[in-house]
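Anyone opening a protein record will find just a pair of labelled lines. A complete record is shown below as an example.
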Amino acid sequence: MHHRTITGTGDGTTTDTTTAPGTTAPGTRTGIRRPNRLLAAAVAVTATAGLALAATAPLAQAAGPHVIDGTGDAYNDWGDEGTLSRQSHAHSNATWLWQSVLYADGAKWRDGNGVRHPFTKSDIDGHYGWKTASATKWWQSHEGLEDIDGIVGKETFGTADNFLSGPQADGRVDYTGYVRQIGFKRIAGTYYVRIAGQWQKAAYNRLG
């Protein structure tokens, strides 16, 4: 088990260090990776919690998921999500959310010459292109996943949610990355991402 430690720098940004189990650097907040969950073959998705912790109707329909959602503790939210790839929900707010995870973890994409480059904030655009696919492969390899295919499916989503904490009273859910911490909102079970200064639903079928 490894620890992710986020340290405030005083200028509104954060830095990250990785510490051995059982150790914590002074003045830091540590996110502990939780064990991967075993997912049932059939999962009934219900959306509860958020600001009012009120129950809502299921958000995943037969035609496919509409939004990224969750209920209860945030670290148990994403293991039953849909698929993100260059062929599936490639232009969406859901992709924006995933790109934010890549940015938080300092993921790297590989160019045609095999050189690695950081996945930067400017790469977060809601479009699942070849950079996002390459950075996702890096992320999957870094987390020791079985499938290193550049596709965000249940295994990848279900590993990422181990690093979520919350929701807080205002619906905030934090993702503790290796490089920085980022925040989402979970309101009435639905995840929101901040796009152009506005909170938008993390929808699979909408961008912006």
Summary: Residues 141 and 148 are 6 Å apart (CA to CA). The two ends are 37 Å apart (CA to CA). The longest strand covers residues 181-187. The chain has two domains: 1-32, 45-201.
